[in-house]
Amino acid sequence: VQLVESGGGLVQAGGSLRLSCAASGSTFNSMGWYRQAPGKQRELVANIITGGVRTNYADSVKGRFTISRDNGKYTIYLQMNSLKPEDTAVYYCNARIWFGGIDYWGKGTLVTVSS
User: Fold this and answer.
1) Would you state the pLDDT for residue 51?
2) pLDDT digits over 61-83, tens only?
3) Beta strand 17-24 pairing with 2-6
4) What pLDDT was estimated at residue 88?
5) What is the spatial distance between Cα 115 and Cα 102, in angstroms, rounded to a whole number?
6) 86-104: per-residue pLDDT in tens?
7) Neighbours of 48 (CB within 10 A)
8) Between the CA of residue 112 and those of 28, 89, 94, 97, what are the distances in Å?
9) Residues contacting 23, CB < 8 A, separation 6+
10) Contact 63, 83 (CB under 8 A)
11) Residues 5, 17: contact at Cβ < 8 Å?
């Protein structure tokens, strides 16, 4: 299984970034983005069901971030708008197989939001 992320970088507060993640090597029931800031635990940002349209967002990003997927592919995107300095973190792509509760992770991509 391989998860390849792209799209991180440095942006000013109020700006936008788009993250991408392509997963391969298995079939997955859901995919999503987590983030981990220095000194903090990894937290869910957003996830999406691969076979449908159901999405889930952390309260801190609702209305600013949008998760989407390519139909027929295990590729997801995270459009991040109105970025805040507190969004600064390493963002990890996750792909999950519900049977057995198996999680796969990307290597992470750094998002830095300057004030």
Assistant:
1) 86
2) 999 999 999 987 899 999 999 99
3) antiparallel
4) 98
5) 38
6) 999 999 999 999 999 999 9
7) 21
8) 29, 7, 20, 30
9) 1, 2, 3, 4, 31, 74, 75, 93, 95, 104
10) no
11) no
Per-residue DSSP letter, 41: -
Q: Which residue has the tokens 């993250």?
A: 19
Lookup: tokens for 6? 């792209």
Amino acid (1-letter code) at residue 69: R
Rounded to whole angstroms, the Cα distance separating 10 from 38 reads 16
Residue 94's Cβ-count burial label (10 Å; 0-12, 13-18, 19+) is buried
CA distances from 114 to 15, 16, 56, 88 (A): 10, 12, 27, 8
- pLDDT by residue (tens digit) across 24-54? 999 999 999 999 999 999 999 999 999 888 9
